Amino acid sequence: RAESMVGPDGSTRFDGRPHGGAYTRAELTGLVRYAARRGVSVVPEIGMPGHVRAALAAYPHLGNRPDRTLDVWTRWGVCDTVLGVHDEVLAFCRAVLAEVMEVFPAPYVHLGGDECPTTEWERSPVARARAAAEGLPAPAALHGWLLGKAGAYLADHGRRPVGWAENGSRLPPGFTAMSWREPAHAADALRRGHDVVLTHHRTTYLDYAQDHDRCG
Fold first, then answer.
1. Is the Cβ–Cβ distance between 163 and 171 less than 8 Å?
2. 16 burial class (0-12, 13-18, 19+ CB within 10 angstroms)?
3. Phi, psi of 160 (to 5 degrees)
4. 22, 79, 193, 201: least surrounded by Cβ within 10 Å?
5. Got the DSSP string for 51-115?
6. What is the DSSP letter of 169?
7. Shortest CA distance to 136 belongs to which of 155, 149, 153?
8. Least confident among 24-38, 113-127, 197-211
9. Euclidean distance between CA atoms 88 and 67, whole angstroms
10. Is the peptide bond before 49 cis (omega within 30 degrees of 0)?
11. Across 193-201, average pLDDT
12. What distance in Å separates the CA atoms of residue 158 and residue 111, rounded to the nearest whole number?
């Protein structure tokens, strides 16, 4: 990332400092052990199919327009660029999740699933063909289809998939739903048979400023 936003949503200030790097497996293993000694289980989140801008900047062929060059966003928000739905994407997801399971022994793995615009799938001939081949009613249904594929892979390896419940109907069966927006989303997920964790963002997001006048 070339630089980072300073302050709350809507800020026009940036720090001008490049940010990058990655955790090593040793660092993550150490974190898991540190937490376990204190009675804490670390649940990793590998967000998909949206919130993947950095991944697509590094691996354009995983997107819906493989000829496109993307940068890493310097602000936060919801991006239209999402994972493609071709076989190579499924293989990539399985490879990432396999390594995640090697590092994190927790019974749960979070797959994100929130804030995923479907515009690219609706415009992509490849995505539309995949939706038709899978018997889906529309390209938008690829959201649940892709999460279902990733969730099934986790389940086959003894883990339980977790997803954000913006709308309970979008999570495949077998997912634990984390409701972060409206109580109605949690109620809908419960009616559909999901286990539900209430995690409303106003009370559980530790990165929120306590005082708007002092943040940033």
1. yes
2. exposed
3. -110, 125
4. 22
5. S-HHHHHH-GGGBS-TT---PPPSS-S--S--B--SHHHHHHHHHHHHHHHHH---SEEEEE--S
6. G
7. 149
8. 197-211
9. 15
10. yes
11. 94
12. 15
Residue type, 180: W
At position 130, the amino acid (one-letter code) is R
Alpha carbons 57 and 177: distance in angstroms, whole number: 29
What the chain holds in terms of domains, given with CATH numbers, is 5-204 (3.20.20.80)
The DSSP bridge partners found for residue 118 are none
Give the separation between CA 95 and CA 80, rounded to whole angstroms: 24
Tokens of 68: 């496109």
Residues recorded for the chain: 216
Res 120 pLDDT > 60: yes
The structure tokens 């239209």 sit at: 80
Q: What is the pLDDT of residues 24-82, one digit of tens each?
A: 999 999 999 999 999 999 999 999 999 999 999 999 999 999 999 999 988 888 999 99
Confidence check: pLDDT of 167 > 70: no
Other CB atoms within 10 Å distance of the CB of residue 13: 10
Phi, psi of 58 (to 5 degrees): -85, -35
Whose tokens are 């995640």? That residue is 100
Phi-psi region of 10 (alpha: psi -120 to 50; beta: other; left: phi over 0): left
- Residue 64 CA to residue 104 CA, distance in Å, equals 30
Residue among 204, 131, 137 at smallest CA distance from 164: 204
